[in-house]
């Protein structure tokens, strides 16, 4: 059930005229469609040029987040984390270190957990992005969210969205088979309050039910 | 992070062609090293060329060994069945590195090209011969507790490659396939891929400008099957190695027939040790032999004030790793 929001108006944005074709082009895997559509009389050099597409300045990016395609106007340097927080108001995903050292920015891309601070939004187009906002079904919390509440898996709460996203992935990967294994495979998520025993308990409980 | 243009390359030729026209551009795969460095203003590139679409994928058995595409991710390679069976040390080197999130992102090619964690390199306020050639090296007399004791020079004592994978690759004679802007491929042993700092610490590998890492191929041997990677860190997980050892032994009737030894965290590059291997081959697989090999490996060490502990730590790490594979 995905809905497509209409792209924002590129008013006042330095969008280059050929953007329309480039945008749709980049959404196709690696531009294969573009090659297939190239007329047969196009020479090898032109084919090669058409095969690599460049984005410069502010352009329209489409990101599929929690089942919905959203459009933002952003530069290529915008990380996925900043796209979520600053462009889409999805502030559940936290910015801790912004260097891939703390895990607060953990989201799922195509079902795998990653640090959203170390990837560019422009690179994640066409992928399924899940954030902490996408876990609950309406008012029904995800079992990992319930377990964090039950086991008091946080104090200040800043690392919690990342811990929960990592915990969900950890269980799905089959890496929560023991307390030791859980600690090792949750080690990319730091908690300065030191709620680790409770976090491990929460992840282990969900793993036990899985 | 300064702005840049972004290009999704549809072919290796298009990617290398772009870097030929704009040598200051950089390839991006996982982005975990590159974006970190760009955010810290340690690298600046006017253009990033996304090579994730290139077909450098797959993990397959070939006549030369196990061939791993450069675009494969650390997590997938670390948990691959063939890698686990044939190269325990390589699997362990991958799964003991970074975090699960970073391993899901980082490519094999990018891992091989990750840059030093020397605090002076990573702080643009300090001089650094690697970052600004000729500016000096505060690490020589400064905080050098996590820096190298082997292969150092008066210009640089950084563990230029701070990671784990290339240590295991160097131990087991892995070969990199590189492709240049003419589409021509060449092969380089991982142990020869990295350069000693000498007077030019800014030149870290033999990779030519614009050249791409296509794949890594590891020969299948008895010693690779009987191997391990032992990593010693300041905390029990998610940290770089203070010292590490990738070792493999082929032991028959209690005698060592073949040995492979490489050390991490102590050299200015992944440190293959022919001295240790020579001390092992033909000898009984005993702790006394392993101690002698460890002493041989560290004989040329040049410790500094804060990293002198690494000489003993590396020897103990190596002995413990050898004891484990000897069973």
TrEMBL record, chain A:
The protein, known as: (2Fe-2S)-binding protein
Key words of the record: 2Fe-2S, Iron, Iron-sulfur, Metal-binding, Oxidoreductase
Alphabetized NCBIfam families for the sequence: TAT_signal_seq (TIGR01409)
Lineage: Bacteria, Pseudomonadati, Bacteroidota, Cytophagia, Cytophagales
Domain of life, source organism: Bacteria
Native species: Hymenobacter perfusus
Domain spans labelled 2Fe-2S ferredoxin-type: 59-135
GO molecular function: 2 iron, 2 sulfur cluster binding; metal ion binding; oxidoreductase activity, acting on the aldehyde or oxo group of donors
Keyword Iron applies: yes
Location of the region described as Disordered in the Swiss-Prot/TrEMBL record: 1-22
UniProtKB/TrEMBL annotation, chain B:
Gene Ontology MF terms: FAD binding; oxidoreductase activity
Keyword Flavoprotein applies: yes
Domain FAD-binding PCMH-type, first and last residues per copy: 1-223
SUPFAM superfamilies per record: CO dehydrogenase flavoprotein C-terminal domain-like, FAD-binding/transporter-associated domain-like
Pfam families: CO_deh_flav_C, FAD_binding_5
InterPro entries, sorted: CO_DH_flav_C, CO_DH_flav_C_dom_sf, Diverse_Substr_Oxidored, FAD-bd_PCMH, FAD-bd_PCMH-like_sf, FAD-bd_PCMH_sub1, FAD-bd_PCMH_sub2, Mopterin_DH_FAD-bd
Organism superkingdom: Bacteria
Glycoprotein among keywords: no
UniProt entry keywords in alphabetical sequence: FAD, Flavoprotein
PANTHER family cross-referenced by the UniProt entry: OXIDOREDUCTASE, XANTHINE DEHYDROGENASE SUBUNIT C-RELATED
Protein name: Xanthine dehydrogenase family protein subunit M
Species of the source: Hymenobacter perfusus
């Amino acid at each position: 059930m995905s809905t497509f929001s209409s792209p924002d108006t590129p008013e006042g944005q330095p969008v280059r005229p050929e953007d329309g074709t480039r945008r749709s082009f980049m959404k196709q895997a690696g531009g294969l469609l573009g090659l297939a559509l190239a007329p047969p009389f196009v020479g090898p050099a032109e084919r090669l040029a058409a095969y690599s597409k460049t984005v410069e300045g502010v352009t329209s990016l489409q990101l599929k987040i929690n089942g919905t395609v959203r459009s933002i106007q952003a530069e290529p340097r915008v990380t996925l984390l900043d796209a979520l927080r600053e462009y889409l108001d999805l502030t559940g995903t936290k910015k801790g270190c912004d260097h891939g050292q703390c895990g607060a920015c953990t989201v799922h891309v195509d079902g795998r957990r990653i640090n959203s601070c170390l990837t560019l939004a422009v690179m994640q187009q066409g992928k399924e992005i899940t954030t902490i906002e996408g876990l609950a079904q309406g008012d029904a919390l995800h079992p990992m969210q319930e377990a964090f509440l039950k086991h008091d898996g946080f104090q200040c709460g800043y690392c919690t969205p990342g811990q929960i996203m990592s915990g969900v992935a950890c269980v799905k990967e089959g890496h929560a088979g023991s307390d030791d294994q859980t600690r090792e495979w949750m080690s990319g998520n730091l908690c300065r309050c030191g709620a680790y025993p409770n976090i491990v308990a929460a992840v282990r409980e969900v793993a036990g039910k899985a | 992070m300064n702005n840049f243009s972004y290009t999704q390359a549809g072919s290796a030729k298009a990617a290398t062609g772009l870097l030929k026209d704009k040598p200051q551009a950089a390839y991006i795969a996982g982005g975990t090293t590159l974006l970190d460095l760009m955010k810290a203003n340690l690298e600046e590139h006017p253009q990033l060329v996304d090579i994730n679409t290139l077909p450098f994928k797959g993990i397959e058995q070939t006549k030369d060994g196990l061939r791993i595409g450069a675009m494969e991710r650390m997590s997938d390679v670390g948990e691959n069945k063939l890698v686990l069976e044939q190269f325990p040390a390589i699997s362990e080197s991958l799964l003991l590195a970074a975090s699960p999130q970073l391993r899901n992102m980082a490519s094999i090619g990018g891992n091989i090209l990750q840059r030093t964690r020397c605090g002076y390199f990573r702080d643009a306020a300090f001089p650094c011969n690697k970052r600004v050639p000729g500016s000096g090296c505060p690490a020589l007399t400064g905080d050098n507790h996590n820096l190298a004791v082997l292969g150092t020079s008066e210009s640089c004592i950084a563990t230029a490659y701070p990671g784990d994978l290339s240590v295991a690759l160097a131990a087991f004679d892995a070969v990199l396939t590189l492709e240049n802007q003419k589409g021509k491929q060449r092969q380089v042993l991982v142990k020869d891929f990295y350069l000693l700092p000498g007077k030019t610490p800014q030149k870290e590998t033999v990779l030519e400008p614009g050249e791409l890492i296509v794949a890594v191929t590891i020969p299948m041997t008895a010693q690779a099957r009987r191997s391990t990677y032992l990593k010693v860190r300041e905390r029990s997980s998610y940290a770089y190695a203070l010292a590490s050892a990738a070792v493999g032994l082929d032991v028959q009737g209690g005698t060592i027939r073949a040995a492979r030894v490489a050390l991490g965290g102590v050299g200015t590059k992944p440190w293959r040790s022919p001295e240790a291997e020579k001390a092992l081959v033909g000898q009984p697989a005993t702790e006394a032999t392993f101690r002698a090999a460890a002493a041989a490996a560290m004989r040329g060490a040049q410790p500094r004030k804060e990293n002198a502990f690494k000489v003993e730590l590396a020897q103990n790490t190596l002995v413990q790793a050898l004891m484990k594979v000897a069973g």
